[in-house]
Amino acid sequence: MIYGNPSFPILSKDIMDSLFEEIGDETFYEALDAFMAEIGEFSAQALHGLSLEDLRVQAHSLKSSARMFGTIALAESAFELEKASKSQNQALVNELLAQILVECQSTLETLKETCSV
Question: What is the superkingdom listed in this entry's lineage (predicted)?
């Protein structure tokens, strides 16, 4: 496992390897490209400001994709952001946004290194 946030690994190779085995080489890399694009789009949209509801929806989608690929720290951050957005806690949302943007970058870098993309 590759760690970022001390509580959660950036990437669980076991989960990612299981996904690779389950869906195969070509489909895995197509899905990986889509996931990496989703991370980039999330980051860009978050920087330009979203309503709390839009942010909740985006965080929910990112959480699901991140869990599928085994990017645990990003999935957990997205989950926390989703909950904060749902509760309309703007101060916490702002704090979590700063954290998740860093995790998005770390996750992209780790995926590129690990998957040779």
Answer: Bacteria
Q: CA dist 54 to 6, 25, 95, 116, Å?
A: 29, 33, 17, 32
pLDDT in tens, the chain (117 residues): 433 455 788 999 999 999 999 999 999 999 999 999 999 999 999 888 889 999 999 999 999 999 999 999 999 999 999 999 999 999 999 999 999 999 999 999 999 998 876
Structural domain total, the chain = 1
Name the residue with tokens 């330009």.
Answer: 48
Distance of CA 8 to the CA centre of its chain: 12
Tokens of 75: 């999935």
The residue segments making up the domain with residue 71 are: 2-115
Q: What is the CATH number of the domain that holds 85?
A: 1.20.120.160
DSSP run (H or E) holding 86: helix 72-86
